[in-house]
Amino acid sequence: MAFHHKRRWLPLKDQPLTEMDRTIMYWEGKGKKVPTRDLIKTPEQIEGIRRSGVVNTGVLDLIESEIHAGMSTLEIDQLCMDYCKQHNAIPACLNYEGFPKSVCTSINEVVCHGIPKAEDILQEGDIVNVDFTTILDGYYADASRMFIIGKTTPEKEQLVRVARECLEIGAEAAKPYGFVGDIGHAIEKHAKKYHYGVVRDLCGHGVGLKFHEEPDVMHIGKRGQGMLLVPGMVFTIEPMINMGTWRVFIDGDDPYGWEVISEDEQPSAQWEHTFLMTEHGVEILTH
Length: 287
Hints:
This protein is an alpha+beta fold.
């Protein structure tokens, strides 16, 4: 019995093939994974995601202006909630698969998905990731920033800096008609220079019309592997860089089962943006 490959990319009926169609079909014929047409955002959808990104950036700018030693992470959550209400937006994290707050606040060895709490008080020398996803008029934008509370150690400062460099290097590696694996390869190569671990259990993702879409954007990888990147795709790059091992575990004391911690409990850092792939490279939608 013959089995036929079900194509992911289908040209539009009664429309001539475009150069994009031909390129995608060429790579699919070579056995590469290509996007489905619904992953290519329309100009209207891109503008909606862009507007959501403006609100997302406003939230993180607010946190940057207010964050300080002695502040609880629950206060950060309240600032995010209030900003969303003022701008007719919705925090995507709130009640997402049981997540109880509007934002993720991950301190020191907490890699991601830290839950804001009244008892979590920021201390001098802490590093903290604030990760927020906005829904505005049905469109999603997702970004995170690292904050250093007061003065910290040179080792933590370097980790925060290198994590940001990993995001920037990953974005530079993302090219139209390149592959997701190109991003991970570039990030992993840079992190290894510092003997840091790149978390493998979590990754970036498509975003825009839903919280999580295809493709998975791994932060390790090989060039030429993973999904083909095509103009019109929107996705996050969000490398989680650990000072020690890349391995992680779920905090057993977290009743919600969300908080991810580095296995050796050394500090972790992460930066994230939402990107639009264009004909010339990526555009940041969450400045």
